[in-house]
Specification:
Number of domains: 3
CATH architecture of the largest domain: Roll
Number of helices: 6
Shape: elongated
Structural class: alpha+beta
Oligomer: single chain
CATH topology of the largest domain: DNA Polymerase III, Chain A, domain 2
Strand order of the largest sheet: 5-1-7-8-9-6-2-3-4-18-17-16-10-14
Length: about 375
């Protein structure tokens, strides 16, 4: 194996793939990157057996071959090199790297023991705009359950309906839903539901945030599906992952249909008031109370703690319907408010014992956030 490429290209490929490697005691070769050179293509490959990442690196091929080296060592060294030509070749059990006045050898292992990355047929695909997809994931992924025993809730639901993708995340205490358009649906299935592991989507977001060109290909991301795998493809990078095989709960049932109180107020003002109240909420409970007073057209936020004291803030609002009240987890509420971009926010409420719905007031009807109350 012998290749020559620019340090910038090699650095980008290593950045893309090395992130999922780590200290795997049971299978040390998973700490390595696989450098694979064949069919006139230079590939960097990594896997943790849950996710596999492949990045194509532009460069000149002088000899084909394959070899694996420690991902951390390779990454740290390549990052230090000047942005000039870098030559990689094999010398017995070492990867020899030359660049201007730099020369090093990194001990490695044969590629024969490296796990195979699953292959998915690319006949049919869905494509999405990168900016919309990246933003949508950040709008919901914080609500995924951290409890790995609740398998279905440990990932994000993708509900595909023709040209619409609805993404849902919940930990049963709060729920976020975001809808975006599918720019191209080249599949025979009009409808499909899948659950994608959180770590996979975090890696896809990290890669989408990388340094890519302004080509049309880099403005969209494609994904392909098999029975139990998903493959994301972006500008020479592929991320393949297993799907979570579980039944996602029918979350539509918890969304109240008939509200008794509707509140519209400034998002930043509510955020500031909730942050002030959170200082005085009970440790571990994070409880704040919101009272909605129709006659006064005010929202009163309050919290009291035997240790720190108490706080009350009055906010002007537009309130229709009945007077109402709810006690809620301040952290959960702030998570929702921070992921709404409109200046004004709408809250819809039945009573203090049912979930409250929070959403933007502008024409964007593609995002909603639900928080369960703290029952008093």
């Amino acid at each position: 194996m012998k290749i020559v490429c620019l340090q910038k290209n090699l650095k980008q490929g290593v950045f893309t793939t090395a992130h999922i490697t780590g200290k795997n005691v049971n299978l040390p070769i998973l700490n390595n990157l696989l450098i694979q050179v064949d069919n006139n293509i230079i590939k960097l490959i990594s896997t943790n057996l849950e996710i596999g990442i492949t990045s194509i690196v532009r460069g000149k091929i002088e000899e084909t071959g394959a070899f694996t080296v420690d991902a951390r060592v390779l990454s740290e060294y390549i990052n230090l090199l000047p942005n000039q030509k870098v030559e990689l070749s094999l010398e017995t059990d070492n990867l020899l790297i030359k660049s201007e006045n730099y020369k090093t050898k990194i001990k490695g292992q044969s590629s024969e023991e490296y796990p195979l990355i699953p292959e998915i047929t690319k006949d049919q695909y869905y494509s999405l705009k990168i900016d919309e997809f990246k933003s949508a994931i950040s709008n919901i992924i914080f609500a995924v359950s951290a409890d790995e025993n609740r398998l279905a809730l440990s990932g994000v639901l993708f509900n595909i309906e023709k040209d619409n993708l609805t993404m849902v995340a919940t930990d049963s205490y709060r729920l976020a839903e975001k809808r975006i358009k599918i720019t191209s649906n080249q599949n025979n299935d009009d409808e499909r539901k899948i659950i994608i592991p959180t770590r996979t989507l975090q890696e896809v977001v990290r890669i989408m945030s990388g340094d890519y060109s302004d080509s049309k290909e880099s403005q969209e991301i494609k994904f392909y599906l098999s029975d139990n795998q998903i493959l994301f493809e972006l500008d020479g990078v592929e991320v393949v992952s297993r799907l979570i095989e579980a039944q996602y709960p029918d979350y539509q049932q918890i969304i109240p249909k008939d509200y008794k109180t509707n509140i519209v107020l400034e998002r930043q003002e509510l955020t500031r008031a909730i942050k002030a109240c959170s200082i005085f909420s009970k440790t571990g409970i994070n409880d704040v109370t919101l009272d909605f007073l129709k006659d006064k057209q005010q929202v009163i936020t309050s919290a009291i703690s035997g240790q720190t004291g108490e706080n009350v803030t009055n906010l002007n609002a537009k309130i229709t319907g009945n007077d109402n009240s709810i006690t809620i987890n301040s952290r959960y509420l702030l998570d929702g408010l921070n992921n709404i971009s409109s200046d004004m926010v709408k809250i819809e409420l039945v009573d203090g014992n049912t979930p409250c719905l929070i959403k933007p007031t502008d024409d964007n009807k593609d995002y909603l956030y639900i928080v369960m109350p703290i029952k008093r």
